[in-house]
Structure formats: C-alpha cells, structure tokens
Amino acid sequence: MISARIGLCEDDPDLRSVLTRALRAEEFDVRATITGHEAVEVFSASAPDLLVIDIGLPDADGRDVCQALRTHGVTAPVLFLTARDALSDRLAGFHAGGDDYLTKPFALTELIVRVRALLRRSAPATPTAGASGLWLDPAAHAVRCGGQLAALTPTEFRILAALAARPGDVLRRRELTSAAWPDGAIVHANTLDTYIGRLRRKLDLLDGAQHIDTVRGVGYVLR
Amino acid sequence: MISARIGLCEDDPDLRSVLTRALRAEEFDVRATITGHEAVEVFSASAPDLLVIDIGLPDADGRDVCQALRTHGVTAPVLFLTARDALSDRLAGFHAGGDDYLTKPFALTELIVRVRALLRRSAPATPTAGASGLWLDPAAHAVRCGGQLAALTPTEFRILAALAARPGDVLRRRELTSAAWPDGAIVHANTLDTYIGRLRRKLDLLDGAQHIDTVRGVGYVLR
DNA sequence: GGGTCACATGACAGCGACCTGACTGCTCTC
DNA sequence: GAGAGCAGTCAGGTCGCTGTCATGTGACCC
Q1: Distance from residue A110's CA to nucleotide C29's C1', rounded to whole Å
Q2: What is the sign of the dihedral through the CA atoms of B151, B157, B163 and B166?
Q3: Which nucleotide in the DNA or RNA is closest to residue A213, CA to C1'?
C-alpha cells in the first residue's frame, strides 16, 4: 500500500517538528506548512489524503483555512488541533461532516489512531487489513468479518488498529505498546500478551481463523 | 445508483432557477423551495440526501431552518449559501449542524464539486433509522416501532434523533451532549446517563428489545 | 533429555464508568 | 395555588475494563 499523504499546518516549531516526525515514523508522507496562507497555497495545488490543521494559527483561523481549501475542491478529511481551554461544543458540527478534532495536549498515539480512522473513513472501499478479511470499523469501535461484528474495548481497538495499519508487517512489542498506551505509560510486559489473547479470542469467534501470529522474540503480525 | 435527492431553498428566482437546472443537469433529483417555512414543511416530510439552503431567506434565517430540520430528525448534510466575508455566519452555521459553506458569488462547478463531496462523505453514514426497526416521528414528537408509539420529551427526542442519524456508529458522549443541549450549556456528566436510561425504558416498552448499546469509555450506539 | 526463556491463559482485585431510583426545582396550565 | 410534566442532580449500587499475577505450554539451545 502506498503511504497516505498528510498535510500538516502548525505554526509552533516544536509541535510541528514532533508531529512531523511522529507521522513519518508511522510511514506517512508528511508535508508540513507553517502559516494558513502557505497551507492553502500548497495543499490546493496538490491535495493530500488528509489534513491536520491547528485552529489557532497566527495569520488565519484554521477553520477558514479548511473553508478556503474546500472552495478549491479539496475534499480530504480534516483533523483540527485546538487548545482545551478554547474548546467549545461549536466544533461538534464537524463530526457530521466526517472530520474530527483533537484537544491539546494530546497523546501522539491518539493522534495516530484518529488519523488512521479518518483515512479509513474517507476511503470506505479499501479493505482495512488487506487479505485478512477483517474490517476495522472505527465508527462502531468494532471489527467486522463477513457479516459478523465483534465489539472491542478501547485498548483492544488501539492494538488491533496498530496491527491492521500494517498487515503482514511484524510489529515489535515496543511499537505496539507505544501505539496502545500513552507516551510514558508504564505497562507490565505481560499486559500486551493478555490483550493479544483477548483479541485472538474475539477474532476467533468471528470466523474461527487465526489472524494474529506470534513472531517469537520480535512481536506480532496480522495476516 | 439512484440519483441523489437534493433539497434546495433559495428565495431569489434567478439563482433558484440556475441552481435547479445546474443540479438537474448533473442527474440530481432536485426539489426546490422558496421560503424557510416551506423548506421545513417539505423536507421534514420527505428528507432529501442533501440540502442546499440560502442563509439570507426573507422569512427565516437559513440556520434556523437547518436547526428546525435537525430537530425533526433530518440528518442530511447541509450546504449553506452565504454572502462573502461573513465569518460569524460560518460559525453560527456550524452551531446549527451545517456541514459546508459556499460564499456568493460562486462558480457552479464549485457548487457541484462540493455537493458531490458532501454526498460522498455522508453516504456511508446515513442509512435510515428504520434499520433498527425504530421510526422517529417528528410531528408527534414520538418514536414508533411496529404499531406501537412512545411519546418522547424534547430532550429525549433530540438525543434519540442524534443516535438515529448514524445507526451503528458509536456517538461519543460529547457529541450527544452537544446535539441535545445548546452550545455553552453546562450539563452534569451524569445527566446524559439518566436520559439514556429513560429512553431505554421507553424503547423497551415498545418491543422489548435492546436498542441502545453502551460502548464503555466511548459513548452509545443505536443498532 | 533437560534447562531456559518467551509467550499463553485463566483468575482476580481495583477502579472508574455507567445505571437507576429518588429527589428538587422549574414552567406551564387550569 | 394546585397539579402535572419536564429537566437536571445526587447517591449508591452494579458492571466491565484494565492491569497484574500465577501457572501452564511450547520453542529453542545445549
């Protein structure tokens, strides 16, 4: 699968750098911009698959940047970043349009999960986990297989999302841990094993197949 | 695919005529209305797949029309037409649950592009609430199931309408809260729980089935 | 085979999210 | 003012998610 192109617009140098590196670490093709005007110029010329835009840009409101891009025919979903104290329910309307927002401060893992969820939603025709027959449904917080559906807890969902993001690739234990738990969280080594076991049980009830393989000494892989 | 039904509300005869013909030329099934009251009457009776509403209607503000339709259970995305440079209008439009904006004057091709984008984005998320066996009855402020009918209070209706707008999707608590209460309203976290409980009791009396599921740590889902 | 290690699995306690019934206050109508 | 109905809060109970532990199992190396 070709990596998704993500357009980023964030004026704070530190945050911009962190976000860019975090997204690139997840194999995304990131193009970072600093001002709203730059974002409109760059992304209307070559539309990315998803936009991550800070609401509080110095030269323009992030929502106006979005609006301007929409008038240029850019239909990619947008993930807004907003300060918690500036958050109000007025942003809720964006959900109906398929967009999303994240309040600062946020865990990078949360950003990654949201980004993947938005990308998945905007490309509903793309099977999520390759040939595994599994279908991650972020809207339902569940996994589908055939007509069956299994509800997942938040932690189970994050782990399976990380695996499904790169089907066929072996994900190291530390990669999975950092994807499922916030940075700095201390989780017992065995905790991941337990969750893998729970996921396997739920997936097994769906179609009786083995979806998550163990790669001894390395990690796990979704096939 | 059956052509999408588009509800148009525009008082200016020239613009109405141009828009109607342009959309029909794109194979859309257009129903044009002139006043806000007519729009509410017509489109709450037979909800289209998308609404195009002028903000500056003579008898009502387009945002109020949108708001009224939302409380009638109409969940279709809305494209507002508005005068240029009206930032406050934009924000207020999103308050009303609108999904996109177009500032006059605009190119017809822009309109078409964004209509298609909105339809594309909303398509997977808008099966009718009938899939759950429940039917929202805005006129009676009630919910029907089979031949049974349960009266709902206004707040209960708004919550159920929000859930029914996206059956199968988990709605976060904050989404439901912002859908059921006005912006800025401070409601105790537990209040939503209480209303969910009341709704469950009423729905349970209709057919004895469990309609609203809890997704722990996330929100609620109508199935 | 025997030892070691990594992983699998079932059980469990803590905790927080959620559920529920009861209650108060408010508004509207008569 | 009385009554009815709705909205919102509270307290206490229940339930499920989470993370950990103990123990079992299988892979690998010698």
Answers
A1: 52
A2: positive
A3: C7
